[in-house]
Design goal:
about 325 residues; 6-stranded mixed sheet; 5-stranded mixed sheet; Malonyl-Coenzyme A Acyl Carrier Protein, domain 2; alpha/beta; 2 domains; 11 strands; single chain
Amino acid sequence: MNKKRVVIICPGRGSYTRETSSYLENSSSYLTEYLSDFDKKRLELKLQSISELDQEPFRAKTHMVGLNASPLIYACSLSDYLFINKDKFEIVAVCGNSMGWYTALALGGALTIQNGYDLIQTMGNLTQHKGDGGQIIYPIINDEWMIDDEKKKYLFSEIKKYNLHISIYLGGYVVIGGAQESLNKILKSLPKEDKYPFQIPYHSAFHTPLLNSITQLAMDGVGKEIFNKPSLPLIDGDGVIWSPWSSSLSELYRYTLNHQVINTYNFSSSVNVAIKEFCPDHLILLGPGNSLGGPVAQVLIEQKWNNLKSKADFIDFQQEDPFVLSMGIMDQKQLLK
C-alpha cells in the first residue's frame, strides 16, 4: 500500500480553551509513559500535573498562563501525533506556529520527547515570569478569506504609528506585540470587526524585541547538548527548512532560543514552504482544538493552491477527501487511524 505524504503542523499557545477541556481523556495508550514522566516532573516542582489540569473545569487564569498552557498543549499535540497511523501516512516535514516550533523540534527528532517537554516548560516559565508586553490579533482579510490590501496597509501604518511590532503572520490575521501602553492605544484606534481587535490573555510580546531579556536566560538554562540533527525536515518561522542532512546544531540552537524569540514568526511562510516544497497529500493539524484551521486555509487561498480563491472554494475542496485534516475535529481525526 502506498503511504500518503503528510506535513504535520503543531499549534501554539492559546489553543487549549474551554472547548478543548479533557482533551487527553481519550488519548493514545502510547502517551501514558510520557505523560507519567511529565506529571512526575511537575509534581517535583510543586506544580499541578498535566493530567489534573486537563480534567478540571477550564479557568483562563489557570489553563492559559505559560506555566500550565505550554506543557498542556505539548501533551495534547503529542497525543494526536502518536494516534496517526504511520503505516498509512508518511510524515515528510513538520512545522508549527510559535510555541508549536518547540513541539515540531521534538516530533521531528531534533529533541527527544522528554527534552522537548523540558524546553517547553522552561520557556513557559520564563515568558510567564519574565516576559514583557502583550499581544493582540487583528484580521486583514475579507469575508471570503482573501487578503484585503487596504486593510493590511492601514494596519501596518497603525503598527508603525504606535511603535509596535508584527509578532506573527498568521494567515489572514496579524498578531501584534508590544508594550501594553501602546497596545491600549491601537486597541482603541482599530475599527471593530466582530471580536477584533482582541488581546490574547496571559501572553507576553512573543517574537518581538521586548523579549530580549528572555533569550539570555533561556540560553543559560538550556544546553546545546540536548539538540540532535532532526530525523525529519523542519520548517521554521522564517520558512527555512532544517534538513536531517545539513542542519548545524549550533545554528538550530541559536535560532530556537534567540532569533525566533525576538523576531517576527512567519507562520504563513512556513505553510507556504510546506505545500510547495513537499507537495503533501494532506496537511495534518495537531490539537488541541482547531485554532490553525482558518489561518492554514487562508494561506492556501492566498497561494491559489489547487485553484482555491475563496472561503467557499475551500469549504467545497474539503468535502470529499479533505486536504487539511484537523485532529481537533473528530470526523477528520478518525481518517488518520
